[in-house]
Design a protein that fits this description.
208 residues
């Protein structure tokens, strides 16, 4: 008998009967290991502490929305100063010019030049005369005769300078240089020339 019992023990624990296994499953379903229980308890405790700390923490005031700056339209660009007007040569001044009582400061003869050349020469001449302090100059344009002696100036160019020079003198680019102009007297070329009055250098600097 003792040998039989010893033999059974040497074979290890016996297998559970079906009803015993079912009962064991029900019991262990509601049992948690000690370590797992401890971890769950600590986690619950930490959650409680954090919740209390969150309640005690003073609430930060809500950030006020920044007021958007009002849109200011850009200032309009400064208006360009008005160009000084042209002034006709006074009658008395013209009479004195024709009598030789007012000195002619400089003279340029554009007759026979191409338009582009004449235009460039005229502008350079007027600037030089003004820089030198001149007040009255003569610009010779020619009378616009249709007779042309050579091929340097074709027939279609005849009279062009007589019509173009007054327009050039009235252009904005020369408004700070030219004060006014009039047809010259017969003594200085008549209809083929112009008296041109220049602005003073000081006036030009003030206007600039």
């Amino acid at each position: 008998m003792a040998k039989e019992i010893a033999r059974k023990r040497s074979k290890g624990p016996r297998a559970l009967e079906p009803h015993e296994a079912e009962l064991w499953k029900v019991v262990t379903r509601h049992v948690s290991p000690l370590r797992r229980r401890k971890r769950m308890a600590e986690a619950a405790k930490m959650e409680t502490v954090e919740a209390v700390a969150a309640e005690d923490e003073p609430k930060k005031p809500a950030k006020l929305a920044k007021a958007k700056p009002s849109h200011t339209p850009p200032a309009p660009p400064a208006a360009k100063p008005a160009l000084p007007p042209l002034a006709p040569v006074e009658r008395r001044t013209r009479q004195r010019l024709s009598r030789g009582q007012i000195e002619i400061d400089a003279r340029i003869d554009l007759h026979g030049m191409r338009q582009a050349t004449a235009h460039a020469q005229l502008i350079a001449f007027l600037h030089r005369a003004q820089a030198a302090g001149g007040r009255t100059v003569i610009v010779v344009t020619g009378k616009g005769s249709t007779r042309v002696a050579d091929d340097e100036m074709p027939y279609r160019e005849a009279g062009v300078l007589k019509r173009s020079v007054p327009m050039w003198l009235s252009a904005p680019e020369l408004r700070t240089v030219v004060l006014g102009f009039e047809e010259a007297s017969i003594r200085h070329g008549g209809s083929g020339a112009l008296y041109v009055r220049l602005r003073s250098k000081r006036m030009r600097m003030d206007e600039a």
